[in-house]
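Researcher: We're teaching a course module on how sequence relates to structure. For the next exercise, students receive a sequence and then see the predicted structure as tokens, so they can try to spot secondary structure elements on their own. Here is the exercise chain.
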Amino acid sequence: MSRKDMSENNLYAVEKMVLAIAMHSPNALPDIITGLVADDFLDSTHKIIFQAIIDLQSESKEVTINSVANQIEKKSNLDSIGGIQRLQDIALDFFSDEGIENFIEEVFYASSSRKFDAALRRVQNLRKEEQLDIESSINEMQKELLKIDLNAQKNEVQSIYKSTELLIKKIQELEKRSETLTGIPTDLYDLDEITSGLQEGDLIILAARPSMGKTAFALNLAYNAARHKNGVAIFSLEMPAEQLTQRIMTMVSKIDSRKLRTGKNISKAEWSNLLASKEIISQLPIYIDDTPGITVQQIQSKLYKLKRDHDVKFCVVDYLQLISSTNSTGDRQNEISNISRQLKRIARELKIPIVCLSQLSRSVEKREDKRPIMSDLRDSGAIEQDADIIMFLYRDDYYKHKDGTEEENKIINQVSSTDLILSKHRNGATGTISILFDKSHGKFMDKG
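Model: And here is the predicted structure for the students to work with:
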């Protein structure tokens, strides 16, 4: 029987069977408790009975017909469910705990289906009552759908035996490869050495003070990933697609960014170089979304589509604090924490690394040592916990010539020494990597 064909009567019978097994089989009880919650049951009486079973289990008490009856009587009224007779009637359905996994799955998916239908109704009512436009309605629907987690019931505990088998198999596969990188290459030697490339499922936070070069650095990562034939998605909340493309064009053509901004003083040789660069860039699998104020739900749905249609394997979000919340509470720190958690979940589900840019708080400016640390992350909240890698960009000359003096204007075209600080690396070493930043072309390079 397929899930979509299950009638209410059939579901009622399956729910009864699950409860009967729960009251008779200590072996099956842990699977039932971890696979379902009381609200997964359609019948209101079944909800009460299952909640009593959960309560008994949490108190380390034996689950029997009598103990369930006593627990219900203690919490409410046994007569409200039909008395002890109702429990005995349910218990009579027990023959064996065989097939309990299927019964749990059927109850779980029926519950998910009801949640989906309820979400549809809520959004439809909002459209009627509050006259929501189609964009707001889609945002609301995406927010509701995020609450329905079909993987919750599938996330099973894995034995160390199975983990070691999978690990050895992976190592054997890696041994056969000539390439040492296991993730997306950054083309920065020391960074690739430490990370083995940016790994699938990782949330990478890249933070710096304004004008330190974090967007340029992210574009370098995106360009280098695309050069290695990896599909790349860029969500730019601050800068339009045209400006991002211009920055990539500057990086590839090595023509002064001011010439591309103004269209003046471009020589014939540079025009030839520009057109050649255009041919290179236009072939890259880079996809830019410059929707201002995009929500994390919209990022999720667009990324799923890009993954499906273009096999996107790398994502850049510029930047975290500009992502809108669909359910504003006024507590921005809490909202940012929720957004970072959802970005981490998306990275894991799609199995791609997500590089998310972030601002630093102004507190760094008040210290004598202005090298950033993790507590400088703006609206940090859960960001430190969710991120697999936290990187900071730091340049001495940013502070030495920040006043915009003539000396700063002179060094604008120079290559600047930059520290890439890895403050957190969940699966490897931390430390500081010294790289070079060619400011006039927006390009980051290895030293030496």
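Model: If you want an answer key for the exercise: The chain has two domains: 1-157, 182-446. The mean pLDDT is 80.
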